[in-house]
Amino acid sequence: MTAPLTRPGLRRVEQIMGTAISLDLADDLPAATLDRLADDVFDWMREVDARFSTYRADSEVRRFVRGELLLSEASTDLRAVLATCAELWGTTDGFFDAYATGELDPSGYVKGWAAQVASDRLVAAGAGNHCVNAGGDVRARGHSAAGRPWRIGVRHPWDPMATCLVLTGTDLAVATSGVYERGPHVLDPRRGAPAVGLRSVTVVGPDLGLADAYATAAVAMGVAGIGWLDRLPGHTHAIVTDDGRLLHSTTLPVTP
């Protein structure tokens, strides 16, 4: 069998939002065009970090929390994110809660949302073959530079050098939330304590921001999140429990 021809493409990685953001552009476009598209993606991710970071005193979110900025004065992006977070609180029965820590922190939605927006902009610009990876939240479309569907590894929650699953597809939004990297940072808002029961939750769907939030909500639910994800329409999932069981939807696009 003849191997597919590899297109030149572009790959770039930058540290933004306290994590590695990687971009693969796989369209056969002029180098200057690929560089400009990549610049646009990383400029956008830096803009999101400046606006939504809970660690930067001058971010729009922190100014809003301190009462220095009224909602009516906030950016269109901040108002849209807050509105979506409020909707997610309802659809997850309160388990996705941007105020779970007592102060506004929309991080469980923002990173996936930002990568989704970046991907949508690439499609609109004529770069339909790409993969945006924002610290493990991945939006992949089209084909890789080798002309094959994208392969996305889901990290093993006990072995950072291994994967527990590999997903394959040409239109995937894959978000993973877990307690293996930052410790028990996801709170069960009903108990006001760190969530227990699920070590890692991966959600696959059409929108990365929503997949990101649903993965966070499921971790917060603990073992009850398994059944909740089973009933979540339009999405598939993979779960690793605290006792080491790997569970996943039968329709998950897993590579054998």
Automatic annotation (TrEMBL):
Top-level enzyme category: transferase
Domain of life according to the entry: Bacteria
This protein's UniProt keywords: FAD, Flavoprotein, Lipoprotein, Magnesium, Metal-binding, Transferase
Residue stretches in coiled coil: none
Known EC number: 2.7.1.180
Lineage: Bacteria, Bacillati, Actinomycetota, Actinomycetes, Micromonosporales
Presence of the UniProt keyword Repressor in the record: no
Organism per entry: Micromonospora krabiensis
Recorded GO MF terms: metal ion binding; transferase activity
Required co-factors: Mg(2+)
Protein name: FAD:protein FMN transferase
Pfam families, per the entry: ApbE
Recorded catalytic activity of this chain's protein: L-threonyl-[protein] + FAD = FMN-L-threonyl-[protein] + AMP + H(+)
